[in-house]
């Protein structure tokens, strides 16, 4: 005989007169938890007979159906086949080594099913807690890291104890049984051991669940103004049974202080109000969340301040980044459209003899790729050179000058101010580092730069001033002689712990009027914005372009990110999106600053529910700040999308609102025009909402229009008419059932008549091309060509059409389209300046990027060429290849 425990035969043994299959007994302890060796032992009784012929080696011989009857707690086993007592299922494991088995004659009592049933609990140890045996493919693991989480060490210790109990039980089961009394004692002992193992296994699982169950994170700003509420966000809603009053606040002395506490929407946030300036801690009660969820911290520290002051030391900055960084790592941002900003009506060009950039706020200039002063065109459309073209004779265009940047500077946008030309862009700054520093930091920085050129002689532009700050550009504006640039800088704070004095945490700036070297900002130039949660800086640079000395520039840095800006003549508003419990559920923090030449000072802040789409979703009018937002998610039934209008007074206090508009849709475009606001939402159709905002305390919806398609950009035609630039859509049947599939078609121009505010109408439409047709005006309003005196509106366009019977789009032609649009005549195509493709791909160098006019001539500007056309009949006058 092989000396192994035989396996149970697949043949049937009859139990209580019925046939049942006896399966091979399971393993006695979790796999890989321990090797569980079994020592060979000689049997004190008679040797076991050899298995019947034909039986598989290592199996139990066939048990007689007549004698295999189970009566309550014992089995009678035929003496002919050897008296094999019923072996407890947990000990009937076939060992990897052979062993001899004794065949005692006496009957033993079967282990009750209630005890045997605990095997599932014993075997339920997670695989992650079972040590694996070393092998060539699985080498021994190194000693545990001393920094390993304490909970993991506890689980390992419990697993070792559990393994020890397993080995003790196996040792007990391999001991020969001599008398009935000993058998009974050992069987009772076995029951207790099995029960202990089961309880231990459940305990290990509970302990592992406690330590590794997802925790509830808390996030909030570290500072808040005294007259503003502080909102704390949780990654899970608070249980309905927990009242807001069960949270409490303590002051710097550790004593409770009175505070107004209230839940936000869905009980996933808590608002704290009515606190005096000082340092506080918010205490979160135990068992506030469902299941075994617990918070990462039971307290949250914050400060209430009266005003924003410069930080006192680098330690304050380090503390901010440490805490903000920990919060930021828990939440991820969703993609958000990042446009610049503007105000409540488009700038008028009626009195000009040449094009002005399409801007939102009259008197607040916006930069663009192309500018003109009526005599010259300045462009950076190839993003490598500054090209000045003489257009004084439209029939003979001349390159006045071409200024290269040698790959060290990358232009982004332009401003023109008489004989001064402002070019804004970025460059890489190589900073000297030691060998040790090179191992932990990048040797280059991206700097956002303002360059001022003297173009009195257009043939020889002269660089006279250069200033900049570290980070990427959020937006720029120009008011009179002052240019404002806002950049965002996110230092790599996670590698700064070992830097002396933490200077690498400060933004870098430079100014050619002072010193060309790049230096960290001074501590007194840095402040922490109230309500700020992002581990980054918003750096505001204000430059007087007519000043040649260092007093003409002022730079300030504010801890707390701003991703959009809106600017009126007197104020700049920075918008930061705050993400609470999900990446699709954000609120907007609005920071207001006063402008006074190069001086920019923080005033107030406010928090709005939902996110702001772009600059046209907000404005300032008669001292009130107005904005529309989208809250929630289109595909989340628990937090469906909804849209709001908010109006705030001069102190950034909310005075009016219209909420929960167009549920399960999101805002695609918006426009404020004096006492009216227009908003387009979309999911299946394109509702245009007309809102009355004349009374800031009582705004209301006046009318609504639902049409196919949607508008990405709204532009005022006059006080009673509005233009929409977007796409046509069609609804197609969903083959899987449910909501129809919305498919985008050609580009769409809509003329809306809002004379009757309660009943807006789509007076005229124009569909251009088919699916895939594209124009930059869809996402960049600067691409819109305007000639108000002639009612002309144009834009660059690339036209595609779907090929019938084929599964692809055919690129047809590219260039520009110009329309005559008026309330009386509707939309009339004036000229098609597109050209058919000579190949399957658009020639980027000849793709029109902007249109502008001067006098009676219209110009199309591409990266490699400029063309001039007569505005009277649109005949081609001249074309110039840029050298």
UniProtKB/TrEMBL annotation:
The keyword Transcription does not apply. Residues 1-150, 336-361 are annotated as: Disordered. It comes from the Bacteria. Keywords: Membrane, Transmembrane, Transmembrane helix. Pfam families: Beta_propel. Residues 11-21, 66-76, 347-361 have a biased composition (Polar residues). Residues 133-146 have a biased composition (Pro residues). The chain crosses the membrane at residues 192-213. This is Beta propeller domain protein. It comes from Sporosarcina newyorkensis 2681. The lineage of its organism: Bacteria, Bacillati, Bacillota, Bacilli, Bacillales.
């Amino acid at each position: 005989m092989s000396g192994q425990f035989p396996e149970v035969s697949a043949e049937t043994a009859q139990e209580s007169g019925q046939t049942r299959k006896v399966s091979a007994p399971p393993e006695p302890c979790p796999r890989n938890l321990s090797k569980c060796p079994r020592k060979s032992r000689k049997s004190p009784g008679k040797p076991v007979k050899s298995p019947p012929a034909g039986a598989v080696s290592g199996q139990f011989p066939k048990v007689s159906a007549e004698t295999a009857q189970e009566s309550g707690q014992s089995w009678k086993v035929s003496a002919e086949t050897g008296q094999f007592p019923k072996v407890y299922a947990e000990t009937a494991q076939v060992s990897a080594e052979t062993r001899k088995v004794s065949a005692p004659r006496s009957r033993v009592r079967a282990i009750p099913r209630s005890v045997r049933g605990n095997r599932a609990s014993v075997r339920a140890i997670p695989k992650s807690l079972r040590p694996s045996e070393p092998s060539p493919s699985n080498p021994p693991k190194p000693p545990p890291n001393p920094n390993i989480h304490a909970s993991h060490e506890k689980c390992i210790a419990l697993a070792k104890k559990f393994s020890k109990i397993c080995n003790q039980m196996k040792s007990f089961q391999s001991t020969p049984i001599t008398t009935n009394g000993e058998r009974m004692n050992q069987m009772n002992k076995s029951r207790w051991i099995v029960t202990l193992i089961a309880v231990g296994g459940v305990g290990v699982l509970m302990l592992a669940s406690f330590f590794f169950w997802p925790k509830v994170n808390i996030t909030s700003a570290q500072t808040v103004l005294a007259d503003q509420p502080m909102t704390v966000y949780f990654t899970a809603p608070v249980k309905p049974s927990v009242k807001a009053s069960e949270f409490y606040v303590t002051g710097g002395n550790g004593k409770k202080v009175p505070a107004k506490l209230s839940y936000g929407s869905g009980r996933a946030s808590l608002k704290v109000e009515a606190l005096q300036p000082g340092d506080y801690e918010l205490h979160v009660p135990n068992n506030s969340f469902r299941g075994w969820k617990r918070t990462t911290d039971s307290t949250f520290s914050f400060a209430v301040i009266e005003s924003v002051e410069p930080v006192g030391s680098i330690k304050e900055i380090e503390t901010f980044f440490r805490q903000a960084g920990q919060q930021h790592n828990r939440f991820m941002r969703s993609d958000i459209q990042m446009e610049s900003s503007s105000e409540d009506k488009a700038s008028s060009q009626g009195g000009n003899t040449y094009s002005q950039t399409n801007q939102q706020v009259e008197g607040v200039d916006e930069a663009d790729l192309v500018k003109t002063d009526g005599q010259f065109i300045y462009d950076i459309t190839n993003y490598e050179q500054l090209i000045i073209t003489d257009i004084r004779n439209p029939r003979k265009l001349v390159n006045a000058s071409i200024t290269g940047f040698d790959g060290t500077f990358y232009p982004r946008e332009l401003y023109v101010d008489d004989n001064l030309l402002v070019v804004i862009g970025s460059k890489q700054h190589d900073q000297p580092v030691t060998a040790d520093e090179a191992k932990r930091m990048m040797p280059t920085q991206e700097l956002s730069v303002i360059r001022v050129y003297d173009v009195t002689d257009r043939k020889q532009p002269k660089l006279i001033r250069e200033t900049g700050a570290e980070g990427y550009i959020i937006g720029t504006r120009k008011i009179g002689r002052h240019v404002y640039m806002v950049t965002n800088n996110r230092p790599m704070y996670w590698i700064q712990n070992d830097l002396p004095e933490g200077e690498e945490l400060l933004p870098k700036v430079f100014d050619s009027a002072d010193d060309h070297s790049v230096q960290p900002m001074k501590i007194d130039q840095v402040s922490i914005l109230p309500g700020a949660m992002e581990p980054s800086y918003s750096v505001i640079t204000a430059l007087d372009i007519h000043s040649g000395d260092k007093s003409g520039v002022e730079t300030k840095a504010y801890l707390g990110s701003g991703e959009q800006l809106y600017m009126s003549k007197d104020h700049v508003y920075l918008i930061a999106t705050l993400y609470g419990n999900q990446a699709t559920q954000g609120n907007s923090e609005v920071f207001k600053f006063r402008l006074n030449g190069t001086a920019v000072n923080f005033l107030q802040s406010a928090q709005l529910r939902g996110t702001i789409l772009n600059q046209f979703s907000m404005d300032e009018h008669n001292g009130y700040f107005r904005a529309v937002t989208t809250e929630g998610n289109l595909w989340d039934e628990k937090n469906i999308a909804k849209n709001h209008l908010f109006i705030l007074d001069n102190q950034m206090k909310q005075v009016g609102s219209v909420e929960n508009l167009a549920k399960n849709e999101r805002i695609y475009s918006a426009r404020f025009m004096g006492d009216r606001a227009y908003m387009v939402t979309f999911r299946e159709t394109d509702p245009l909402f007309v809102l009355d905002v004349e009374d800031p305390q009582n705004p209301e919806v006046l009318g609504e229009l639902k049409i196919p398609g949607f508008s990405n950009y709204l532009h005022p035609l006059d006080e009673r008419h509005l233009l929409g630039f977007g796409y046509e859509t069609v609804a197609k049947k969903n083959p899987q059932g449910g909501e129809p599939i919305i498919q985008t078609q050609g580009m769409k121009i809509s003329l809306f008549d809002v004379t009757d505010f309660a009943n807006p109408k789509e007076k005229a439409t124009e569909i251009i091309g088919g699916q895939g047709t594209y124009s930059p005006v869809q996402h960049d309003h600067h691409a819109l060509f305007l000639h108000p005196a002639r009612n002309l509106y144009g834009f660059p366009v690339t036209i595609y059409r779907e090929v019938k019977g084929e599964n692809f789009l055919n690129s047809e032609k590219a260039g520009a389209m110009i329309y005559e649009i008026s309330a009386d005549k509707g939309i009339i195509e004036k000229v098609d300046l597109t050209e058919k493709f000579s190949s399957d791909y658009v020639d980027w160098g000849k793709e029109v990027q902007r249109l502008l006019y001067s006098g009676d001539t219209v110009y199309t500007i591409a990266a490699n060429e400029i063309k001039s056309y007569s505005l009277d009949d649109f005949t081609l006058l001249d074309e110039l290849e840029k050298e």
